[in-house]
Fold each of these.
Amino acid sequence: MKRFMLSALGAATAVAVTASAAVAASSTMETVKKRGQLICGVNTGLAGFSAPDDKGVWKGFDVDYCRAMSAAVLGNPDKVTYKPLTGKTRFPALQSGEIDILSRNTTWTFKRDVNLGFEFVGVTYYDGQGFIARKDLGVKSAKELNNASVCIQTGTTTELNLADFFRTNKMKFKSVVVEDATEARQAYAANRCDVYTTDRSGLAAQRSVLKDPDAHVILPEIVSKEPLGPVVRHGDNVWGDIARWVRNALVVAEELGVTQANVDQMKSTENPEIKRLLGTEGDFGSMLGLSKDWAYNVIKSVGNYGEIYERHIGPKTAIGLDRGVNNLWTNGGIIYAAPFR
Amino acid sequence: MIEAMNTHNRPFVRTEHLPQSPPPVSTSGIIGWARENLFSSPLNAVLTIASFYFLYLVIPPFVQWAFIDAAWWGSSNKDCAGYDGACWAVVTARFGQFVYGFYPEAERWRPNLVLILFAINLLPILWDRVPGRTIAALFLVTGFPLVALFFIHGGLGLEVVPTPKWGGFMLNLIMAAVAIIYSLPLGILLALGRRSEFPIISRFCVLFIEFWRGVPLITVLVMASFILPFFMPDGFNFNELLRALVGLTLFSSAYMAEVVRGGLQALPKGQTEAARAIGLTYWQSIRLIIMPQALKITIPAIVNTFIGLFKDTSLVIVIGLFDLLQVAKSSVTDTNWLGLEHETYIFVALVFFVACFAMSLYSLYLERKLDTDHRD
């Protein structure tokens, strides 16, 4: 009897969950499907992460996530309308429904997750704030930066981290506030500040275009955790699930060795998790309200996580970032995804 | 006899004029001009020498950088590696994007056609030797925007190009043109309304003008772009470019109203009274007596507002519209073109300068043409 009660309760909960899911489904996913276009908020320009190429096609690490979402939901990676956003306009744009998803190197923080009414669906890139300084300044560590002038972008978490770091180490600094990364580099190159601080991915990109990259050193300290990832509106759990599992599918595909090139052969593999991932077994797609082969479409269109990384920001690109902590957990990094089960 | 006597007494009489000799070298030609204008006092001489020295310091290196050592073609900043000067390749490779934004290449004849039609429509308005000014002006505010919308946006058989794909200098021109075309008549109405004898009308106009003048344009754009959708019913979504255009137009019409009001107030009251005395209605007197004079004296201020407005169109960068300046900014975040800000910004500055200077020249031409004053 007790068991019956429990299972009845479970069934009731399941019905309730399905019902509420159905209600939620009538929002973002329905809108996107009806529109036939995914509106994705991206950076107006951040080297390696999002920038238009000579033909006006958006390219980059964050952009590929938009393409993956579009492939999963609409079956085609090119049905994306990119909405370029600045640091200040990205959150109102998401809150007001101007965009369906924000894929714009946004740091997952408590306040943004809880207070602004957003849902971070996972981490696509683990970044951390660092400093770059001229070698002839003779500084070996960020702890020697007392009374330094620091170039910094407004409206970002880096601004707050900087203040925290200097306060903890009982140091003073003079901030030189600029609007974007380009301006920051110009100011730094023109000697308006001693050091320039931003996420280390940004520092690497900016350093590669300084006149003499070897005359500058990225200091060893990482003063913050910057887990960057896609963001959706709070409360639309179906849409959040899709966004989360697109990210997970990309990572799991790399774990399982499924690539853009071999995804067709992989369809006939015996590995059960690959089968579940690619939709040849189980019915994971319809649980998300998507087609059976949604993850196949994703990998066929943009490749797995590692491929996206290598294509846009890896060591072979102008940005030249090593995988580091962004390697898979099996390779010494911390990129990890829940299993397809 | 007497004459003969005289001639005899005087040893020499010149019968023709001496040929005029040129003025002294020091007061004519280049030297004279220089003495007059550049070295007229010790202070001026010092300033002149200092200025020339400054130009000498600036111009040759700039020419060297921008032209002699520059790389003009290429597909990435690596193609500029061998050159010491500017890397204009970023501008030449992306020229289409600078001009049209993300507008599809195959469809770019459409905005070009609209530009030509616009010029044809504008000709009778700007140049009084072409007839049909009134009709052209009416068409410009009514029919032409529809024609332009049809061609640039598409529909009815033409491929639709949604507004997020509009960009580059084309977007600046569209925004400036729409805002200028609508803000002038709107501003005139507001200026007249503000001077109206009906309290409701004048209060409303004062409120409207002061509100829009009191708010920074960036705030207007951000409000229109991100805050307005909060108040909209679900699924009801204005086009964002349209929202920006409305904001820009209302904003500039408030400024225009004050400019025009300045012109109205400069006219003596006798003009209105005389118009009334010969039996003209209010609108007749406005159209025939007041406005022609008021607008004439405000030409410099109106064009000034237009130029400011034109440059303000680049502020749409804050709401993520891809105008010329944003194209320049994003171009240098492409990993192929990292670090070429100087080239792209100089190009943008040049484009804006040419456009604004052209407007300013036209205003000078208009002022000279309409100069009927007898003040000097």
Amino acid sequence: MLLEIRDLKKSYAEPGGGKVPILDIAEFHVDEGEQVVLRGESGGGKTTLLHLISGLVQPDSGSIRLEGVELTGFSEAKRDRIRASKMGYVFQTFNLLPAFTALENVRLAMTFARRAVDGSRAKDLLARVGLSDRMHYLPSQLSVGQQQRVSVARALVNRPKLLLADEPTANVDPANQSRIIELIQSSCLEERVALLLVTHSDEVSKRFARVEQLGQLNRAAQRPLTQDAV
Amino acid sequence: MNLFAIAIRNLMYRPLASLLTALSMALGVALVVLVLTISGVIEKSLERTSNVGYNLIIGSKGSPIQLVFNTVFFLSKPVENIPYSYYMEYLPGDGRQKEFERIGGELKDPERNGLYSFLMKGGFAIPICMGDYVDRFRCVATTPDYFEQLKHGDANDLPYTFSAGRNFVDYSEEHGFFEAVVGAEVAESLKLKLGDQVYAAHGAETGDTHSQGFTVVGILDRTGSPNDRGAFVNIEGFYLLEGHVAPDRDEESGLEKANTAVAPERESALSKVRLPIHQREVTAILLKPNGFAAIGLEKQVNKTKFAQAVSPIAQIEGLLGLFVRPLRWALLALTSLVCIVSAISILVSIYNSMNERKKDIAVMRALGASRDHITAIILLESLLIALAGGLVGWLAGHALGPLSNPWTMPATGVKIDWLSFNSTLEPLIIPGLVLIGTLAGVIPAVAAYRTPVAKSL
């Protein structure tokens, strides 16, 4: 088992001083190389779950294990290192850094993983996503679809074990949507990377063998008061 | 990519803001370098000029610094005169007696040696008279010894040389007592050549001009000293000009006696008749006493009622300590303030960009960048602006110095070149820039460090 979550709880502070539970997951796991889609309504805690798994946010309680290693007890610096080396992240709005070219955006991820920058690895990945002739373009000079492909290459460059994709097709047209999902899925297969993709799209969900409904996993979402608060 | 390259990329993405803040730092550093260079030049100029080759200046009682300014730098108003007979007290050996025989006139105890002659063995005493001008330049009446005994240069070991002609002589068959030597700056400005006449004017630039001219017989090579700006005439001829005869004075009251300031009758300009000793005065005496006698002599002269002895080196050092160096520190403080204001503008510029960069910072964090990475990138950006601006300012400061040579060199005699370098203070610019660059980056770096990643993504 690659990723294993148990009794994970997260709540946010209210302005009045109280706490609003947003996630309460009893058990969830992703196997090595597995591709899982996680469905849920907007505001249902999907992004928060990805932030918890990637270590950007700490849970209130519970356990998150990656390759059998408990992550929640680690310092922020150690979580940063694990995120850089073992996880890739594809964002909803691509989030390419505007000051850097496509190639540099990919190489940045290698810099933060404290790995010797292997220029050929970054170039290979960009070529594989069909951008060999756009490597030195700035994000502003790329189309939406091309930007998303760069973000996929960036997420895979450090040979992660797990790719977290947060609504990667939310901002693209239907034609590009299927191309991007195809690209992410095929790239993960080639690189033997497990994929946890969050979406609320039926079209996207159909492409996955395993579809999980966050509403069913999340006990916090099943409480009417909490749902209102969220 | 390393953090350095990332910081450069971020700066290049905001070219105008980066350029303007770097330019403000460049301006501050350029001003600091200019202050250091120019104050260094002034100091060097004063120091080298104070090393004049004579130890003491004797003049009438009054402001010692005025005496030095007038005698050494040809600045300020001339001081009062002292009798020629007093100058003769300083002539070495039997010089006083010989001078009496050479010139004639009234002199008490003409057979004795000068009072201070025993302290002057191997040294010299050179009289100068000032107060007249040749055009806008000082007219210095002196003896040929001025260029024969005195030296110039940093080590004060270079004899005066002539780009044309020769030194003036006491008397020549061709020009009588009326020969002149002009400094390089005077010759260049007034377009003088050998054989030209220069006319001394009374008192100031606009005063009455004497009808008797002096023939230019020599043009000095440039020395980088105030002598470049002097018109030197034979003192014997100078005394014969109208109004340069000292009147007789009442011994008790010191008041001038009427109708006594009359020059002797002379048949022609080539006449060998000289102004008698008792009708002569000098403005200052340049003294080089024997060995260490200068210190004792200075004290002794300063005890007298009407004369003072001044050490030019001590006066210049005093001036440097009292005005030039404190002024330099004040200017340095002001220009350093400009650098601090520039640092604040760097701070504001980077800090203002933080809002629009929150998402970029969050993305970098999500890609695995630690808070330390982000902090280092922001600090590097601040440092790079400070250092790049500082480098441009340093180069600009050193470029402006040599560009000012056409104006500063004739005035100071010191050439500023690219390598005019203040070895004490200038090396401090780099650590100074690193310090203020880092300090300017601290607040934005802390803001970046605290960027909430999950909220900003």
